[in-house]
């Protein structure tokens, strides 16, 4: 049996969790910073890292308390050390190193994106362990920083087969929410607004499919189309650009319908690429045994529904994380670290925090 303490501070959630055997979260503590960033309309890195610093010790203590364990019961300390905001990552990495050094525990650096692909394997405290992930799988990470498809051959093994050429889908949601004045945080607010609207009441927004066999994503055209639909054609150029209209010039019904049209176009594009990827893997005699979805946008109501429908139509198991494990959390970090620990992939105290996914060792 392993009992791993996970720490996650890559962006704007300070999180800690204790996970047993890589499957059962005994605690899952997440302190969101939405309130702190709301007035700026996005994450301010300096505010994020300061807030992590103020909160990290209490969050770790609470995760141990909730799990009913003490530091000496822990087999290893895992931390998301890449990719992310460097000042934010450094807080978690420093905390993990201090614990590992002072308690004499193994230290494990975990790739945050790979951890999103493992979140669906984990049971929340008091819940039943979900059906096991089977490999090889098609993986989809849709978050504020990533829209990528992976050929996943094991928990620690994912090869990128498609990614965004511009905005990540979560980023597009966040920007679209600003355009529609839907509130902050943008993704969940827009999702809620879209559920009140009817996409068929407005002209469809574009779905960017790129080349016929491309597994890459592009969301900037969709975002710009929505911008022009809401604000009208831009006047002037560069920093002098102005718009004749704003969200305030549209009725609440119209804004909800546009949100629904945005959601339909964004999710259509993602589903289409999943289908393409499944077909391409089958054509290469590497058929996926299942679809694993992770990242903040896996909380999206339309994406969850459409990916389950796709699974049913193709007789393919679809693994979606429970809602609290869609967004950034430390259970996915501790869960994946179980596999790294049993593979002997531990780190030394010079583990770096890295802004990108490159391992750097
Ligand atoms: O995985 P995550 O917490 O952080 C990153 O690793 O980026 O993902 C955050 C992203 C944000 O862009 C947020 O707006 C989006 O996930 N998100 C959603 C929903 N919930 C969160 N996007 C669409 N619909 C949602 N329900
Ligand atoms: Zn994330």
Annotation keywords:
five-stranded mixed beta sheet; binds 5'-O-[(R)-(carboxyoxy)(hydroxy)phosphoryl]adenosine; 10 helices; globular; alpha/beta; 361 residues; binds zinc ion
Outline of the structure:
The protein is 39% helix and 17% strand. The chain is of the alpha/beta class and 361 residues long. The strands form two sheets. A five-stranded mixed beta sheet has the order 3-2-1-4-5, sandwiched between helices.
Describe this structure as you would to a colleague:
The protein is of the alpha/beta class and 361 residues long. Helix content is 39%, strand content 17%. The protein contains ten helices and ten strands. Strands 3-2-1-4-5 form a five-stranded mixed sheet, with helices on both faces. A five-stranded mixed sheet has the order 8-7-6-9-10. Helix 5 crosses helix 6 and helix 5 packs antiparallel against helix 8. The model has no long low-confidence stretch (mean pLDDT 96). The chain binds 5'-O-[(R)-(carboxyoxy)(hydroxy)phosphoryl]adenosine and zinc ion. 5'-O-[(R)-(carboxyoxy)(hydroxy)phosphoryl]adenosine binds next to helix 5 and helix 6.
């Amino acid at each position: 049996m392993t009992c791993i303490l996970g720490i996650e501070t890559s962006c704007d959630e300070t999180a800690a969790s204790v996970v047993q055997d890589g499957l059962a979260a005994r605690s899952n503590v997440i302190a969101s910073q939405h309130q702190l960033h709301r007035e700026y309309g996005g994450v301010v890195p300096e505010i994020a890292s300061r807030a992590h610093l103020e909160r990290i010790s209490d969050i770790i203590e609470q995760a141990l308390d909730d799990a009913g364990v003490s530091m000496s019961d822990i087999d290893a300390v895992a931390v998301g050390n890449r990719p992310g905001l460097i000042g934010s990552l450094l807080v978690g990495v420093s905390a993990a190193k201090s614990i590992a050094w002072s308690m004499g525990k193994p230290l494990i650096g975990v790739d945050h994106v790979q951890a999103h692909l493992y979140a669906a394997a984990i049971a929340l405290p008091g819940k039943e362990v979900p059906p096991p992930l089977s490999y090889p799988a098609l993986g989809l990470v849709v978050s504020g920083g990533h829209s990528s498809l992976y050929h996943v051959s094991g928990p620690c093994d994912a090869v990128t087969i498609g990614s965004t050429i511009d905005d990540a889908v979560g980023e597009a949601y966040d920007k679209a929410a600003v355009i529609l004045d839907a509130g902050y945080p943008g993704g969940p607010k827009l999702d809620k607004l879209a559920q009140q609207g009817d996409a068929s009441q407005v002209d469809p927004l574009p779905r960017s499919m790129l080349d016929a066999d491309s597994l890459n994503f592009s969301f900037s055209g969709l975002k710009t189309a929505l911008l022009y639909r809401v604000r009208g054609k831009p006047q002037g150029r560069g920093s002098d650009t102005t718009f004749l209209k704003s969200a305030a010039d549209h009725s609440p019904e119209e804004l909800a319908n546009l949100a629904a049209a945005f959601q339909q176009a964004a999710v259509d594009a993602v589903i289409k690429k999943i289908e393409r990827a499944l077909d391409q893997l089958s054509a290469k005699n590497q058929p996926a045994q299942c679809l694993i979805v992770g990242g903040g946008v896996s909380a999206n109501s339309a994406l969850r529904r459409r990916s389950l429908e796709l699974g049913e139509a193709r007789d393919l198991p679809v693994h979606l994380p429970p809602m609290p494990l869609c967004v950034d959390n430390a259970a996915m970090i501790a869960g994946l670290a179980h596999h790294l620990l049993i593979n002997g992939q531990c780190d030394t105290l010079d583990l770096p925090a890295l802004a990108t996914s490159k391992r750097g060792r």
